[in-house]
What does this fold into?
Amino acid sequence: LLAITGQWDAEGRAALARGAWVEARARFGEALAQEETAEAYEGLGIAARYQLDARGAFEAHERGFRLARSRGDDAAAARLAIQLAQDAYAFHGPAEASGWVERAALLVEGRRPSVAAASVSLLRAHFALSDHDPDSACAGSERALALAREVGAVDVEMLALALNGLARVSAGEID
It folds into this structure.
């Protein structure tokens, strides 16, 4: 049973990588029919978000978050809180997104470096820049960049580097 679920999870991740949202949702749905996992809910929610299905994204990510918390899996819960922050930012706005970022922060602070920890720093830096605080945005994006490099999260590293450049220009460092 776990091998089959793993196969559907892998097929779902491959579909996400190709941008095949309908296929990804089907694969993660098949995986969840066999066994509820935070990872399958995460993938299902990502596919729903890219289809602009706010309700589907929130439902999947919230179920995954609750499942991870009930199992004591703080790492998965933190990843899902980051996904919920992205859902909230896309569909409801920065105030709700900020709340999910802080929930994720509670789950990663004082623990080993992780993609979620790098994402928390990145999103906090993004909010700081939106609040016209380029110095805090620079510091936060530098933390995110260092963490992303440490854990090998190239996507977060690229976003942190871009945000750091924007924050520096916003602070008047045009060179």
